Amino acid sequence: MAFESLTDRLSETLKKVRGQDRLTEENMDEMLREIRLALLEADVNFTVVKDFIKNTKEKALGQDVLGSLKPGQVVVKIVHDELVELLGTDVSTVDFSKKPTIVMMVGLQGSGKTTTTGKIAKYIKEKNHKKPLLVAADIYRPAAVEQLKTIGEQVDVPVYSEGVDVSAQQIVKNALAKAEADGNDVILIDTAGRLQIDQKLMEELKELKGIANPDEILLVVDSLAGQEIANVASSFNEQLGITGAVLTKLDGDSRGGGAISIRYLTHVPIKYIGTGEKLDQIELFYPDRMAERILG
Ligand code: GDP
Each residue of 220-272: pLDDT tens digit? Predict the structure, then answer.
């Protein structure tokens, strides 16, 4: 549990506090300083960290900890509870019960969007017995269309594609009709990504949203993108109203602090995590496990 890693991290400070029968504001500030460092090291966005520490301190003071008998533990508990509350207390999944369920996958180029689209298709085919259709709507990179086709073959899921000469809007319209004709119950639309957020990309995504009327818009975010994650999450959410996020490349060195930034700034749940390049390396998101990883 995150409790333990937090207790470990604060062990020196807790030792000092244990010698006293009352927590002083100074002790508490010292603990909060260490927590602040842990969060920054985990790449949580710095303004998010600032707010988090401020809120936690207010909450601690509000609970009259400066007099409590086990002052260290009380602060640890408050920090832990705040973190889990921020990350979401429950596992949050995509509701695939509607037929068809339409999911738009969005994100910057290189975030792992196309791979994740294939991973979700494989996951729901095997675990939920769904009959998904993948839609290749990233018409700006011929390689992206080919990549989705290859992934479709690997996971044995059909891919709707019209190459790169037809507009993404038209492809999505045609794909919806095709899915209805073929009885696909989940439609996963792989949209274009850019290296940076630009207005043209957003306008096209907004148009696609209007056409597809998706049940979910999942933002795919590279967990290794550091402080940039906050900006990406805020922009996509403001422009499109995302309904969930997927944090990829958690098999790498990232401590996953991006999860906190995403939750704090957009309030949407993280629904999956990517844990490798292989198409079965996708998992549901467990907030308590992530809290522990972030605290290191
Ligand atoms: P897109 O441009 O957003 O569609 O990104 P891609 O799906 O092409 O992925 C970019 C690179 O990241 C590829 O080399 C993927 O194999 C890799 N990738 C995607 N997800 C993960 C993950 O969870 N872990 C690791 N290690 N690599 C990943």
Answer: 999 999 999 999 999 999 999 999 999 999 998 888 999 999 999 999 999 99
Is the confidence metric ipTM above 0.90 for this complex?
A: yes
pTM tops 0.90: yes
Residue of the CA atom closest to atom 27 of ligand 1:
277
What's the CA gap between 205 and 178, in Å, rounded? 21
Nearest atom (ligand 1) to Cα of 276: 24
CB within 8 A of 121, min separation 6: which ones? 132, 134, 152, 155, 157, 186, 188
**In the structure, which protein residues have their CB atom closer than 6 angstroms to any atom of ligand 1?**
107, 109-115, 147, 193, 248-249, 251-252, 274-277, 281
Q: Whose CA is nearest to atom 13 of ligand 1?
A: 112
Q: What is the pLDDT of residues 15-59, one digit of tens each?
A: 666 666 566 788 788 888 988 988 898 899 999 999 999 998 888
At 74-114, the pLDDT tens digits run 777 888 788 888 888 889 999 999 999 999 999 999 999 99
Number of Cβ within 10 Å of residue 146's Cβ equals 14
Binding residues for GTP: 107-114, 190-194, 248-251
Binding residues, as ranges, are 107-114, 190-194, 248-251
Q: Which parts of the chain are beta strand (E)?
A: 101-107, 132-137, 159-160, 186-191, 216-222, 244-248, 270-274, 282-284
Q: For residue 130, give the 3-state DSSP assignment.
A: coil
Atom number of ligand 1 nearest to Cα 248: 23
